[in-house]
Amino acid sequence: MKIRPAEVPPLAANVPQAAPSEVADLLRFAPGNSFAAVDPEATPGFSGSKADGKVAQSLDNAVLSDLQERLFANAAVNGLQHSVLLIIQGRDSAGKGGLVKHVVSALSPHGVEVAAFGVPTAEEAAHYFLWRVYRRLPRWGNIGVFDRSHYEDILAVRMHGLAPQKVWAERYDVINEFEEGLHESGIRVVKVMLTISPEEQEERLRDRLVRADKQWKHSASDISDRAAWGDYTTAFQDVLDRTSRVGAPWFVVPANRKWYSRWAVTRILINELQQLGLEWPQGDFDPAAELARLEASRPKKS
Ligand code: AMP
Ligand code: MG
Asked: What Gene3D superfamilies does this protein's entry cite (predicted)?
């Protein structure tokens, strides 16, 4: 009896775009690179139009979904101990929420777990800063998506003066060790720093003030944080320099064009999953015998 081979959805062809591994190479941050020098308008690895981007995206979504399902299936059937953790950071209105929505909508709801990290609750604040993060790590076979993360325990704490420098400055090393442990355990950590221009941010924050469907997103602190643009740039640069490492790299993704940042992050995830080389798991049964049983089980017409 012949088992039909699984069909692999095609990566988008006929679109001027770089392969997933090349996109990852283009956007991966190497310590010493300049965060401020990354052009938020740019579309590295993609030279087509926005319309081309949409076509490429829909094909890539199918590829990502296929890879995610292989991961899920191998964890379920073979006990594979791997998962992916996508961490998304960026300034207010950089598109973190939209990116989460995009990634999630491309995947089976069973295979994805989302966590958003806001100002710590009283219970969270009563614990070690990584406590709330540990609790939201994705189970094997899943993709976890963090909308903000433990990096706020450096960034927000530093920028809002919530604790002395001694406290947040120690966290770079603590986080490196934490993420190294995740990597060694089988969790592939992918960190995305979205970058937008001040002009684009102004437009997006203005939208939140004048549009009925967006007002709920406005937060007074977004405007004061924006006024400290340069200090945030320094804080992001320090995070990137000190925590972009093998096994837990940062990718700085231009995000003025939302369609580009979504396409780029999808390709980065595809690259990550492709490296696991996942085949579809085989059942531990004899397919021919099971087919015979299936046929024999046909209910008799009365
Ligand atoms: P939003 O992402 O728009 O829901 O906003 C969440 C807010 O929570 C941001 O202003 C973050 O800076 C803040 N936040 C997240 N994590 C922390 C943290 N560990 N300590 C302080 N503020 C935080
Ligand atoms: Mg906000």
From this structure: P-loop containing nucleotide triphosphate hydrolases
| Predicted TM-score (pTM) above 0.85 | yes
Place of tokens 């190479």: 25
Answer for the pair 20, 70: CB distance below 8 angstroms, yes or no: no
* Ligand 1, pocket-test mutation among 88, 89, 101, 119, most atoms within 8 A of CB: 119
Which tens digits make up the pLDDT trace of 2-17? 777 777 777 777 788 9
Report domain 20-279's class.
alpha beta
Q: How confident is the model at residue 302 (pLDDT cuts 50, 70, 90)?
A: confident
* Tokens (6 digits) for 184: 């060694």
Q: Which of 152, 157, 217, 231 to mutate to test the pocket of ligand 1 (most atoms within 8 A of CB)?
A: 152
Round the CA-based radius of gyration of the chain to a whole number and report it.
Answer: 22
Distance CA 41, CA 200 (A): 9
